Each structure stands twice: as C-alpha cells, then as structure tokens.
Amino acid sequence: MARQQGPRRARIAFSDAAAKQVEAIVSEAELHALDRALVVVSVDPAAGDPIPGGPAGRGLREYTDTVERVRLLYWTSALGTIVVVAYIEV
Fold this sequence. Notes:
By secondary structure, the chain is α+β, with helices and mostly antiparallel strands. Helix content is 28%, strand content 29%. It contains 2 helices and 5 strands. It has helices at residues 16-24, 28-43, and strands spanning 11-14, 49-50, 61-65, 70-76, 82-89. The longest helix has 16 residues, at 28-43. The mean pLDDT is 87.
C-alpha cells in the first residue's frame, strides 16, 4: 500500500544574527513557541505578510503568531524550498 505524504516542508536556515538570537533563548516555553512558528513558515513560506515597501514577489516577509507571541522576519529562496530567518522576537 502506498504511503501518503504530507506537504513538503521548506528547509529552515538562520542568518548569523538570528542564530545568535536562538542561542540566547533559555526558556523551554519560548523554544516551543519558536518551533511552532518555524513549522508554520516551513510548511507554507507564504504564511507571513510582505513587509510594506519591500520588493514584490519573494521579498522580505513577517510572520507573527499572536497566541505564542512570536515574530519572524524571513525571506524564501526562488523555489520556496529554503526559508532564511533574519530576525526572531519571542
């Protein structure tokens, strides 16, 4: 029997600044909240809103989860297979 696969996820990469922000997180709750937000943008890279005044198409985007209180600034590769997180606020 063939196995059904879910939607393909984009790979997540961090800018140097975002990687330092992740390293500074010590709270399990904040790490869990960040993980949930990263899953959202990896499954649907268009989930965030384009930054006003930014370039059209696949420019800089902002994803905000008001329940988990997480904000990500990111951009995606041309094919949407890689999401580069530039800034994290938890």
